[in-house]
Amino acid sequence: MSDPIVVPRPRRRRWVLAAGVVFAVAVGLVAALVVVPNVVAWTERCGDGVSRVGPHDECVGLTDGSVVFAPELADVEERIRKENSDVIERGADYVSVVVLLPMTVREDDVVSAAWVRHHLEGAHLAQLAANKERRTGNTPLIRLLLANAGSGLTQWRAALEELEQRRAEERIVTVTGIGLSVDNAVHAMQRLAQLPMPMIGSTVTAHPLAGVSGFLRVAPTNAALAQAAANYAVGTGAKRVVLVRDRNPHDHYSVTLGDEFAKYLGDEFTGHTEPYNSLNSGVDNTFPHMMPNICHAAPDVVFFAGRARHATTFIQALAARNCRDKPIKVLTGDDMTFSPIPDHAVGTALSTGVSVFFTELAHPQAWDGAPPNIFNPASIKQFGDECEGEVCYRHLSADLLDDAVAIIAYDSVLTAVQAIRRAAGNEGHKVTAGDVLQTLPRLRGQTAVQGASGMMSFDESGNPVDKPVAMLKLLPDQPPKFEGLAWPGS
Fold first, then answer.
1. What is the pTM of this model?
2. What SS3 state is found at 200?
3. Does an H or E element contain 222, and which?
4. How far is CA 369 from CA 126, 219, 365, 378, 482, in A?
């Protein structure tokens, strides 16, 4: 039996198969080229308008509250999102105010997660107050957009790029907050000035921020804080002073506070300076080496011009000084509010005759028995424990107001609202950032802003003039004690 005849397959089918494989591979490659970048882009996004950037993969950008930057901000961001949606649903004219802050906080930052949350709570209370008032002239309504510039404001470029792209569609007319007196804040403000965009700073006190075009700040400057502290020290009979100061050139808060304190040496006080530089290592180890000269100087007051985390180790070094029989009073700035000294350090220091006082940008006890026409009665009522209704701080938070952040953030947005409403002029006029820039210089004298932290009449550099400064004393195991108000010009 012969072998069966096998008909060979046409050679072209092999080519068709090969071509099919090639086609499939090509399609796969094209799909990969399309899909993979989309997958990468999706993993880099945190939500609309917010992306992961920087060495710490922080969610940076701009949101209406829909993107939650940190778990502890979820509640207040949701409240802001709902109010923003309500503004649009009401169908009335509106504009947007941006709160620019470092909303993702790292362990070694100079501010805390509570600092950020209090900022947003105060800003939102001012938004509610602006949108819920039932009288004429309460338009445009206010949407509050949240811009995260990353820890230490290090990702300010990415945050401002998103702001620039959406400024028209979101009707952005003012930026508030900023919050830190550091190089990144200066860079961000200079970029906003180029747009141009009005800025109203909250807890920023250093001088290099003054004079930036379109910038106001509701907090007293370091010059005002130092003068108020010096006046307070004179009032206690102090004559001999040692100035301990940080020479880190990138920390404008510490440098300018030290410069202002130094002005009073040789004038109101006699004494000398003990410098250190937080840019270098070994800061904690250098404080004990200061003690022999400090003891020899026998100061009535030590002016400490530096961050609270360094004040902690300095005060601990004071507690171990050889001259513990000589009382020493330490006087420092408002950074102590944001990073207070641990109770054990305070207790140890107090037991060796050390007392610690610091300036604060605002304090709720200042409202009790204050001179008339200094604080806004309506604002005080909104922050009060007896407040009822939606426009109440207690509706947002059970926290104390002692760190002043919510109060200052409230006044920052309140100032923005007053400028916006004045810029609105005739009904139907659509407010722009340029309109607000024209209005900012009017917020002085008879048209000054009466806020929860005091009367704010702004000079040509955008600084509040003769604003009261709260003085507080550290106590162990309890909140700092309100000592009274000090005045820069007194």
1. 0.85
2. strand
3. helix 222-235
4. 24, 22, 9, 16, 13
